[in-house]
Amino acid sequence: MTPFTYGRAQNVDDALELGARPGAKYLGGGTNLVDLMRETIERPVALVDVTQLDHEIEERADGSLLIGAATRNTALASHPAVRARYPVLARAITAGASAQIRNMATVGGNMLQRTRCAYFYDDDGGSRCNKRHPGQGCDAAEGINRYHAILGASPSCVATHPSDMCVALAALGAVVHLRNAEGERALPFTDLHRLPGDQPELETQLRPGELITAVELPALAFGARSTYRKVRDRASYAFALVSVAAALELDGDTVKDVRIALGGVAHKPWRAWKAEDALRGQPATAEAFRAAAQAELAQAQPLRHNGFKVELARRTIAAVLAELKEMKA
Amino acid sequence: MPITINGSTAELPDDPRVSLLDFLREHQHLFGAKKGCDQGACGACTVLVDGERVLSCLTLAVQCQGKSVTTIEGLAPHAGMHPLQEAFVAHDGFQCGYCTPGQICSAVGMVQELRRGVPSHVTADLRTPAIALTHDELRERMSGNLCRCGAYNGIAAAIAEEFERAPT
């Protein structure tokens, strides 16, 4: 690791003051950042430990939940309101990483883990990566890219965002609460992360020194009828090849409303707006589920080794919707 | 504010780059926690921080200021072995033993999580506060600890037996 200073923020003002220093980074559980610092891919000059900040989960009168950014992943997945009203979120979190990492990782840190691939990590091996060295080129695009993106990628970067939690947050229409020296603002979670375009080194819309203070889950009447399915190479402790977070509202046999987001397929947690639009008002049948999945995946642009993800995503979307239709919520 | 390690206080390192794992091994000469991958993939470095199982390789020692760390050396209260260590011996829960301290610290933390009702990927009913330690639950909850000798059957049997013997 390159040298850095360490400070522990006692409150948000404290964190913003310490975090205003150019080259400073906020530190949550460190499960991604410390690893990348050891590889000298991340080289912050200062770490501002924000794990002592808000880690409460507030159940608000309007039915929403306000989750402090320092809440640990395990605590969020274990919360009774999350388990009962947003099972997709508890399912997504418990599908991610290992128990040790979930005990360490904060909600804010999970969101800000790097979008990455093996070529991003392979600095010593000489792989080219536009995230590590902007303008250098991307060896993943023509390399071994089985795990890489099929949606929203660019010639400059084909990496995927590996979070499971974030796929559920995208489906649930979460809102991110932010603070910096200029004040506070709220951002739809689906706008937090960027697609790579020609600047893949920029992964979020955060401004300099800006701190995630909380994430808000709006009330969702049909949230109890939601789930998360993750398809991966081994049964546990592996990144998704494809994952689906979804919630379904039925009116008799008709789809009244639906939320769908995909993981493992793009540079950011992928809200499947086209699939949702295609399904609303349609009969809740296997054919309609399949058609909705096709509406989303029609835009897919697979690479040499990940063409299988297109059909895998279609099938997983349809299977999850079928499961939700039968769920006793 | 210093750090507490197995009940004794210690001063934190001046250099914030020192991981908790290196602090335990190189500064405190507690060689139980092992450096397997040093990148959060194997679980050999698992210790308990304020009772929660974490990876000491991805924890900076300075982050543990004011916290209480328990390593394999601190698990048995007196001379002799922790019951889970005895169970690992009885069930051949290892061959080379390199992953064993991490496996045992992880299992201790895992049982506490189960008692608190923390759900896992294989928990069928998320609303139930009482989760049984089934075969699938045990294996899923221990999936962050790899054993390259493949002693998983013995490890799972040891944990299951000790949990049955002392479930609360």
From TrEMBL, chain B:
Keywords: 2Fe-2S, Iron, Iron-sulfur, Metal-binding, Oxidoreductase. One of its GO terms (molecular function) is 2 iron, 2 sulfur cluster binding. Residues 1-75 form the 2Fe-2S ferredoxin-type domain. Coiled coil: none annotated. Gene3D superfamilies: 3.10.20.30, [2Fe-2S]-binding domain. InterPro entries: 2Fe-2S-bd, 2Fe-2S-bd_dom_sf, 2Fe-2S_ferredoxin-like_sf, 2Fe-2S_ferredoxin-type, 2Fe2S_fd_BS, Aldehyde_Oxdr_Iron-Sulfur, Beta-grasp_dom_sf. It holds the Pfam family Fer2. PANTHER family: OXIDOREDUCTASE, IRON-SULPHUR BINDING SUBUNIT-RELATED-RELATED. This is Aldehyde dehydrogenase iron-sulfur subunit. It comes from Variovorax paradoxus.
